[in-house]
Amino acid sequence: MQLPSSATVAAAVLSVVLLISATEAHNITNILASHTQFSTFNRYLTTTHLAAEINRRQTITVCVVDNAGMSDLLSKHLSIYTIKNVLSFHVLLDYFDAKKLHQITNGTALAATMFQATGSATGSSGFVNITDLKGGKVGLSPADYNVPTPAKFVKSIVEIPFNISVIQISMILPSDEAEAPTPGPSQMNLTFLMSVQGCKVFAETLLASPAEKTFEDNVDGGLTIFCPGDDAMKKFLPKFKNLTAEGKQSLLEYHGIPIYQSISNLKSNNGDMNTLATDGAKKYAVVIQNDGEDVTIKTKIVTAKITATLVDKLPLAIYSLDKVLLPKELFKAAPTPAPAPAPEAHAESPKHSKSPPAPASPADSPADSPTDGPNSDADDLTDSGAVKYNAGASLAAVFSLWFAFNLLM
Ligand SMILES: *[C@@H]1O[C@H](CO)[C@@H](O)[C@H](O)[C@H]1NC(C)=O
Ligand SMILES: *[C@@H]1O[C@H](CO)[C@@H](O)[C@H](O)[C@H]1NC(C)=O
Ligand SMILES: *[C@@H]1O[C@H](CO)[C@@H](O)[C@H](O)[C@H]1NC(C)=O
Ligand SMILES: *[C@@H]1O[C@H](CO)[C@@H](O)[C@H](O)[C@H]1NC(C)=O
Ligand SMILES: *[C@@H]1O[C@H](CO)[C@@H](O)[C@H](O)[C@H]1NC(C)=O
Ligand SMILES: *[C@@H]1O[C@H](CO)[C@@H](O)[C@H](O)[C@H]1NC(C)=O
């Protein structure tokens, strides 16, 4: 067998290690996926990024409530941070399955929670009091409550001793401290944050539009903004002024995604995404796609690249772009009915970005490519070729390693 280079071996070892930890750790999203009565709880574990924290830990208990219990919580209209605090109060940092819950030494115990572990809780407020009650019932209460709450253990959902236990409880555990309003970035001045970091023109355009309120309204629930840099935005202004009032608002809202996407989310979640401009049949979607280390945002007309991260803190992310995003709903691509089998939107390459594309630019028509380049297409091909090659190489390396490993066994 041919010996792989040390770099390939290192990469292969890493892949194998990642593979092992990925297969052996639990996945709370997956565990709850088949239990539709907990779908809201499950969704919020993902939105608040608690799922990842739960998956990282061992010897824990997740106390879930059904969708009705979650609507009680959601009806309080708490911010996403506060919901995160409340849900983290439902993750006990010890393993309690049905058997252990019913056999608590001396009938009562305090369990530390993930909320306590965040350091946000004071005194005993981050602990849950578990008490064995008459008639085989188990009560759960915030430890700092004098009067026990009516929350009870309902049933065990999944037990993986002693890694994770998922139990259903009858209601959300109240906690004044976990439910206390958490200062969120809704107080942040979005336009200011963009203005001082190279997106002044976009920020000023936004301030003069009703779109600004759309952005503000979405911060608490999670928001990602792609702001075109000043050069790109300045060149675009004449075309912007030509749009109708509605078109202007949609164009601006097209630069926001109503969920929080960290840069690593963007790198791992390639594909179509709705924007703040999406309105029923008017899709106004963008396509997120990796290009090596870069993240690109594609429309049918233009491919923009993320040039910098201005803000990245749950629930708000702001990235600057090298181009203005042109939705096909406002800027028609070529009328030529060219039945292009080639991948779309390859025409714009950062190297050739002398000017932003014209509204009626037939940028994604292959017939017009010569202006913007066979080069860019060639680049893309080379890139994807390289990616394929690397993937193949590391797969081969992993396989070799696996083979060598089996020989040793
Ligand atoms: C518990 O987690 C450890 C470490 O991730 C793993 O090795 C073990 O297989 C897990 N146990 C079960 C029953 O899944
Ligand atoms: C956990 O499972 C969900 C749903 O099956 C999946 O989308 C997600 O990628 C998994 N997470 C990890 C870390 O494997
Ligand atoms: C149980 O109660 C006994 C007597 O009150 C005490 O000594 C012991 O520490 C308690 N055990 C636990 C785990 O609390
Ligand atoms: C838990 O709460 C019950 C009822 O309020 C109380 O009697 C018990 O002492 C508490 N347990 C602990 C460990 O604080
Ligand atoms: C936010 O910053 C902009 C400058 O970008 C300023 O004009 C505006 O008044 C600020 N808004 C608030 C609410 O402070
Ligand atoms: C604005 O619209 C007019 C009329 O439709 C057109 O002639 C002009 O070229 C447009 N200007 C720009 C900058 O797109």
Task: Report on this structure.
- There is one protein chain.
- The protein folds into three domains: 1-24 and 388-409; 35-169, Roll (FAS1 domain); 185-321, Roll (FAS1 domain).
- Mean pLDDT is 78; it is low at 7-23 and 336-409.
- The chain is built from 17 helices and 14 strands.
- The protein has helices at residues 6-24, 28-33, 39-47, 50-56, 67-74, 80-88, 98-102, 114-117, 176-179, 190-195, 200-207, 211-218, 230-241, 245-253, 263-268, 369-372, 374-408, and strands at residues 60-64, 91-92, 108-112, 127-132, 138-142, 153-160, 164-169, 223-228, 256-257, 271-273, 286-291, 294-298, 303-313, 316-321.
- Strand 6 and strand 7 (164-169) form a beta hairpin.
- By secondary structure, the chain is α+β, with helices and mostly antiparallel strands.
- It has a seven-stranded mixed beta sheet with strand order 9-8-14-13-12-11-10. A four-stranded mixed beta sheet has the order 2-1-7-6, with no helix packed on it. A three-stranded antiparallel beta sheet has the order 3-4-5.
- The chain is elongated and about 75 Å long.
- One 2-acetamido-2-deoxy-beta-D-glucopyranose is lined by residues 189, 191-192, 195, 203.
- InterPro entries: FAS1_dom_sf, FAS1_domain, Plant_FLA.
- This is FAS1 domain-containing protein.
- May be a cell surface adhesion protein.
- It is found in: Cell membrane.
